[in-house]
Design goal:
- The chain is an all-alpha fold.
- The protein has a domain of 70 residues.
- The chain contains 5 helices and no strands.
- The termini are far apart.
- The structure holds zinc ion (ZN) (2 copies).
Length: 122
């Protein structure tokens, strides 16, 4: 039987389970593409390892590598990184690219409900 994993940060069910390792890999590729300075890369990686890797008691495995369990949702993973990008004063165009690449699925639920106010009254 499969239990739904809950995010250790926002406590929401993780509907699209991708582990921190896979998310980090994806993020590393992105940093390479933008030639971020070594100092910034180290800072970001250090932050990710210290703050975004969680032990999980659940058996729900990552849909990409199928070996790691899920600690937090991708939304929390990338929104935390976004805060660090701000702190590091990353150029606007690079940040825009980050938002485009990593936020495509993150806000889908929210924007759906915002665009479609509940009109099933009476
Ligand atoms: Zn979360
Ligand atoms: Zn994975």
């Amino acid at each position: 039987m499969k239990n739904t994993e809950f995010c250790k940060i926002c406590n929401n069910p993780v509907t699209n389970p991708i582990c921190a390792k896979c998310n980090t890999k994806h993020f590393l590729l992105w940093m390479n593409k933008h030639n971020l300075s070594l100092k910034k890369r180290h800072y970001l990686l250090d932050y990710i390892k210290k703050n975004l890797f969680f032990e999980s008691e659940n058996n729900d495995n990552c849909i990409i590598c199928n070996s790691e369990t899920i600690g937090i949702c991708s939304y929390c993973f990338y929104s935390k990184i976004e805060n660090i990008l701000d702190r590091l004063k990353i150029a606007e165009d690079i940040k825009e690219d980050f938002l485009q690449i990593f936020n495509y699925e993150l806000f889908s639920d929210e924007s759906f409900s915002l665009d479609n106010p509940d009109i099933t009254c009476n």
